[in-house]
Amino acid sequence: MTRLFKWIVRRVGPQNLLALALLAAVMVSVVVGLGDVIRGLDTRQMLLVVVVGVLVGWGLAATPLPGWGATILGSVSGLGLLFLRVGRLGGQLLALLRASVELGWGIFRWLQGGLPVDLAPVILSAAELWGDVGTLLARVRDWALALAAGELVFDPVAVAFTWGLALWGASVWAGWIVRRRNWPLPAIVPAGALLTATLAYAGGGTSALLMFLGATLLLLALVGYDVAVRRWEAAGIDFADPGPELAVTAVLLSLVLVTVAGLSPSISMQKIAEFVRELGDGRAGTGVETLAESLGVEQRPAEPRPAGGLPRRHVIRSGPGLSQRVVMFVSTGDLPPGPPQTVRRRPPPP
Prior knowledge:
It is a single chain. The chain contains 12 helices and no strands. The protein has helices at residues 2-12, 14-35, 43-62, 67-85, 90-111, 120-148, 156-181, 184-202, 207-235, 243-263, 269-278, 283-294. The N and C termini lie far apart (65 Å). The longest helix is centred in the middle third of the chain and has 29 residues, at 120-148. It is mainly α. The chain is flat. Helix 3 (43-62) runs antiparallel to helix 4 and helix 5 packs antiparallel against helix 6 (120-148). The protein has one domain (2-294).
């Protein structure tokens, strides 16, 4: 195990491994934040999606493929992973592979004068896999059509597939742009926008945002240092390696900034949420609410935050209600049921 780790460090490079770890931490913070406000989102499943997405994006950037080629390969690999994880098609795929191997061995024996080949196991396995794929696609299609018609329909499978696509795209983009262009800030913009907009609408906590900020600051310092060192080496400039001192300074500065951001009341999530909701007055508001509820985003009452000075208003409300935090999931291993035939629908406004 130690030899394998040393080989990976020597092959990839310690700075690249650290950059990958920070990118993974950024995306993990996004999943943690979304999992806190999205109903029924499997965070373990999404963690696998973002970690694999960062690795795939990084690996594609290390190849000479152009951007469009990396986009195609990244999209195909992401769809395959989501079909396997969200659609739970791993068992059917393994059965098809096993039947295919047996078919190949049967063809070899038949060419040697053995018994005729039996195609039934392969056909049955392929039909079962295709049927499950069709079921998943049908549920996503029905959910998307209902959403386009302004109807409120919550399908956990379609919601997981949609969020998985969004997180996969943000993860692959982050890994690719950091490895290919050395642009850490544009790399985290899609993930940051996704997390911030969702938390602002739902009224979620700021813990995930603070984790996101800390990992981003460290990533900015690491990539900036790496780019500067390579520029100095290319120009033939002698320099004393400031690596250890810079690492300590970056960590301490990031901790200070994250602490200040966590304690400062100047940026109010409630004001951001009110701004997002104000964008949805009238027809647009109904559309925003329908989209959010169909995606499983649950709004929460804003928690009071301490602010400097005397209070400017008095808030009267009832006592705390029951906790809505999910503490246990019970699953049978099959896909969760789709929306019932009779669902609560909201017709589009006139």
